[in-house]
Amino acid sequence: MISYLKQYKMWLHVLLRGFQDALSAHRFCKRRSQPSLPYSLRLEQPFTASATLNEKKHNLRLAADRIRQYVVNPGEVFSFWRTVGNPNTSQFEASRSIRGGELQLERGGGLCQASGIIHHLALVAGLQVVERHNHSKDLYTEATRFCPLGSDATVAFGYRDLRVQNTTSTPIVFDLQICDDHFEAFLRSADPITAHDIRFEQSEEPDGSLKALAIDASTGRTLCTSRYERI
Q1: Which of 38, 58, 155, 176 could be disulfide-bonded to 115 (CB atoms 3.0-4.6 Å)?
Q2: Which residues pair with residue 206 across a beta bridge?
Q3: What mean pLDDT is reported for the chain?
């Protein structure tokens, strides 16, 4: 459980974000009956073995069940936390999570794999990423990495969100599927969406940190830049 002080600070941030959202021009997606969505883009990531993998899958299933109920109409914004809700409840289980660059156990642990694959899928679909935060440290090697460096999206309820605007002319739904050994993400749509070839490049900075770029291979445009401390 999180302490009362942390809860107090968290809810202050939630209230502040709600006030800012009320003043913004964003139209957020809503829970709706799904229209026919015959087209899809797909990404897949492997699950890596850990002592809390079953708990992580539980959290991902719970999040996936909520996320797929939301239809994002053209112009609307998908917010990870507006759809998933507060992970600090008994519905979510304790699993590994990265906070402050360190691995720890906390309720809702593992949800960053969901936000990360949605971010990657949004880049492939050419959607507008309104808010995204990369992890502060790279805890993986190339052999253990389950997604490209620079595709991740860390989320912390009340503090850091993943927000994506549907800049297409068709309704979309993020549909996450949890399989035995891998994780699938589909962007389902009423009309076809052209997939962009996204290239991830990484380089070492003079201070020893890593810089990762997500680049649209067809245009050469850099879509996002991420920086990570080495462990």
Answers
A1: 155
A2: none
A3: 93
